[in-house]
Structures are given as C-alpha cells and as structure tokens.
Design brief:
Elements: E1 2-4, H1 7-13, H2 18-32, E2 37-40, H3 41-53, H4 60-70, E3 73-75, H5 79-91, H6 97-108, E4 113-115, E5 128-130
Parallel strand pairs: 1-2, 1-4, 2-3, 4-5
Helix pairs in contact: 1-2, 1-4, 5-6
C-alpha cells in the first residue's frame, strides 16, 4: 500500500513543472503494477487550501478528480492521528504539520511507502519515499 501526497495531484493538474512528467510516469507505473494506492483527507484539504489561497478555484475539481481517480481509499484524519502528528512535529522539527499528519496516517494504517516529491520526509524512520 502506498500513500499519495498532495503534491502529486497538484503537479498533474498544474502548469509546466519538472515534476509533472515524473508524477504522471510514477502513477502510471504504480497503476500498471496494480499497487494499492491510498491517500488521506489532509491531501484533499491541502488542495482546497492551496488553490483557494492563490485564487485558482478552477483547479480544485481537476485536482480532486486526479487524486480520487487513482486511489482505492481516503483515510480519515481523526483525533488519534492528530495526537500522533503532534508527537511527530514535536520530535522532528524539520517536518511540517501536514507531513506529520501524513506520517501519522501511514503509521496508523501500516503504510510504509509514500509517493511524494518532498525530500524532507526522508528523515522519518520506517518509511520510504517514492519519487
């Protein structure tokens, strides 16, 4: 099982970017391999936040479509995830709160791989980043 981070759908629907082709290629590869792809509700929130903040509301639905088309499940962010994310943020100052939420979701659901272009995640033990 592989968790997809929010930067992947944003690269897919965004303008020209060096990671756009990589995101497309990696998703196609994982889909062909029939990998179980998942995400978390924080990814959907990040899409809403980012595109509303830059007044690109027209990109929200395409980004939602891009992620929901490829994932098998969207995991909830509940109190236990928030509590674990808090511990991660306090223990790993280099990680953002969003990254900590993704990592807490991964721990809770036994996920060891994340598709993300965020190299900062590499400092967290017991996970591997694909990208």
């Amino acid at each position: 099982m592989i968790l997809i981070d929010s930067n992947v759908p944003m690269y897919l629907v965004g303008g020209a970017h060096p990671n756009k082709a990589n995101a497309e290629r990696l998703l196609e590869k994982l889909t062909l391999e029939r990998q179980r792809l998942v995400t978390d509700a924080e990814v959907l929130q990040e899409i809403l936040h980012r595109y509303a903040a830059i007044d690109r509301r027209d990109a929200i639905q395409p980004a939602f479509d891009a992620i929901l088309r490829v994932v098998d499940e969207v995991f909830a962010v509940d109190q236990s995830v928030a509590e674990r994310a808090k511990q991660i943020v306090l223990g790993y100052r280099q990680l953002s709160a969003r990254d900590a939420v993704h990592l807490a979701v991964m721990e809770k659901n036994g996920i060891e791989q994340i598709l993300s272009f965020d190299a900062g995640l590499d400092i967290f033990p017991k996970i591997s980043r694909l990208a």
